[in-house]
């Protein structure tokens, strides 16, 4: 029934991701475990579960077995296809409780809601400036990468 209502009662308190079912929620929790014994032989990225490694390895093989029948775009996972298909329906089932904005994906709503909460969990370790989103911090860090140290030379006359 949760599929039809959009209800997602299980929330990860580490990253705010939500889930319809307990089994998917429990599987997700393993991504926060520091121990990641399963490594990709191509890029050496490691994973807590073998399942996640298998999903990741599809990136390297280029196999995209899920196709959208509307536009023929292909995807690596069924979930990616499902998320994509919403663009064709125009459906936006997730609405912000603070304003009238609506979103097609729950992750987009969660990202948007941080604006209202003014959460700034991503802090620059060089200047202390904080950002709501990790990608904002990455963009900001480029400023420091191009900054040149100021050298003041004293001229004696």
Please name the defining characteristics of this protein.
Double Stranded RNA Binding Domain, 39% helix, 157 residues, alpha+beta, disordered C terminus, two-stranded antiparallel sheet, two-stranded antiparallel ribbon
Brief summary of the model shown:
The protein is an alpha+beta fold and 157 residues long. It has helices spanning 2-5, 22-29, 50-61, 78-89, 106-117, 134-146; strands at 10-11, 18-19, 38-39, 46-47, 66-67, 74-75, 94-95, 102-103, 122-123, 130-131.
Overall description:
It contains 6 helices and 10 strands; from the N terminus they run H-E-E-H-E-E-H-E-E-H-E-E-H-E-E-H. The protein is of the alpha+beta class. The chain has a domain of 52 residues: Classic Zinc Finger (Double Stranded RNA Binding Domain). It has a two-stranded antiparallel ribbon with strand order 1-2. The longest helix is centred in the C-terminal third of the chain and has 13 residues. The chain is globular, with a radius of gyration of 21 Å. The C terminus is likely disordered. Belongs to the krueppel C2H2-type zinc-finger protein family. It is found in: Nucleus. Pfam families: zf-C2H2, zf-C2H2_jaz. GO terms for molecular function: DNA-binding transcription factor activity, RNA polymerase II-specific; RNA polymerase II transcription regulatory region sequence-specific DNA binding; zinc ion binding. This is Zinc finger protein 235.
